[in-house]
Write a structure and sequence with these properties.
The protein has helices at 6-18, 26-31, 43-55, 70-76, 85-98, 112-127; strands at 59-62, 65-68. It is mostly helical. A hairpin with a 2-residue loop joins strand 1 and strand 2 (65-68).
């Protein structure tokens, strides 16, 4: 995949953080830059990265919600856990450079006003006390199959 920028890697990392439980809206992905301790890239860079990552099938968009595709999730496997954001970006850029996926997927073209609105919404939400766009989201309807150790199990004697 060429060309590759730091914004591509940062967008993948922010999407990973924002869409852990369900696909994330753009404003939630913008909020994902904050825990990475990175400033939000410029609007044109974000638009280019989204277009490039969706065209290569690494990020998918459905109903204006973003998530990593299976290929994108595979890129995130094996990232070093005990490193800073710069180390993660460097490692992920290497993986993106080695990625051979063709640009055969439909790319998503966002407008500048749409991206600017998401950035401004995130900035306003960050100023409000107690509001966090990356709060744990409700799980998708899954049945909890784990057994509680307090119900039906052998108790202490």
């Amino acid at each position: 995949m060429h060309p590759i920028s730091d914004t591509d890697a940062l967008f993948l990392l922010a999407t990973t953080l924002a869409s852990k439980r369900r696909p994330a809206e753009l404003v939630e992905i913008i909020a994902g830059f904050e825990p990475l301790l990175e400033p939000v890239p410029g609007t044109s860079r974000l638009i280019d990265s989204i277009r490039r990552l969706t065209a290569h099938g690494l990020v998918q968009v459905e109903d204006e919600r973003f998530s990593l595709s299976a290929a994108g999730q595979q890129l995130m496997v094996g990232l070093p856990k005990k490193t800073d954001t710069a180390g993660l970006v460097t490692h992920l850029r290497g993986k993106l450079a080695a990625f051979d996926g063709p640009a055969s997927f439909p790319s998503v073209h966002l407008g500048q006003a749409q991206v600017d609105r998401a950035v401004l919404t995130q900035r306003a939400a960050a100023k409000e006390p107690g509001k966090n766009l990356l709060m744990p989201k409700p799980k998708v309807e899954e049945e909890d199959t784990r057994r509680s150790p307090w119900r039906g199990g052998k108790g202490r004697r």
